[in-house]
Amino acid sequence: MHLTKLQKWLWTMVAIALVGSLGFAAWIKYWPTGNIYISRMVGETEVIQPRFQLTSHTGGKVSDATWRGKWQMVFFGFTNCPDVCPTTLAEMAMVMEGLGKDAEKVKPLFISIDPARDRVADMAEYVAAFHPAITGLTGTDTEIATVAKNFRVYYAKGEPIDASDNYNMAHTSVIYLISPEGQFVRVFSFGTRAKDILKDIQQRL
Ligand code: NI
Q: 54 and 111 in contact (C-beta within 8 Å)?
């Protein structure tokens, strides 16, 4: 397979992130906001309503009903993410590969929580670097705020990280599993191995 420059860069980031993931896990565990938020979220799973109205990376208007009938793996992040997002999207790609012909029963979605920078074309280029099945979704600030509220996703803009006003986003880093009927089923916490996610999903198909 021919890899584009972006793909090479992203997969290099994945490798670096995997090496650093233990340190990151320790960091997020003691990161007050994230830890408190995730604890609260897991305790409130019954109120997660996986509903959205967004724009896909091909430019079409989509909603949660668009992929009704398929299991949905939903992850929130941003295309400039240095570690968590590329690592998780790489895992989702591995799950899709592992599913073989059952891949048609599962839809992986990547929803931007940085709509100011992640426009449709950015989402298209980004998700294509990981797996052709992944659909990237973005929207207006209001649409993103609404889907984040519905999924109980935390996200916040960080301080500028350089003189060009680049910034990172803090964000909930779990993968949500949504049933073919559109009901929230469970989350996979950051760092869950692709083979464990695959096994869980295969048992449900
Ligand atoms: Ni991220």
A: yes
pLDDT value at position 21? 63
Report the largest interatomic distance among the alpha carbons of the chain, rounded to a whole angstrom: 49
State the pLDDT at residue 44.
Answer: 52
Q: Is the separation of the CB atoms in 136 and 123 below 8 Å?
A: yes
Centroid of ligand 1 to alpha carbon of 70 (angstroms): 25
Q: How many residues does the chain have?
A: 205
What global pTM score does this model have? 0.81
Cα-to-centroid distance, 81 and ligand 1 (Å)? 4
CATH code, 99: 3.40.30.10
Taking only the tens place, the pLDDT of each residue in 38-51 is 444 554 555 899 99
Q: Ligand 1 centre from 107 Cα, in Å?
A: 20
Q: Total domain count for the chain?
A: 1
Task: Kindly give the distance from the C-alpha atom of residue 137 to the centroid of ligand 1, in angstroms, as a whole number.
Answer: 14
48 Cα–ligand 1 center, Å? 21
Q: What is the domain range of residue 89?
A: 5-204
pLDDT in tens, 128-167: 999 999 999 999 999 999 999 999 999 999 988 888 889 9
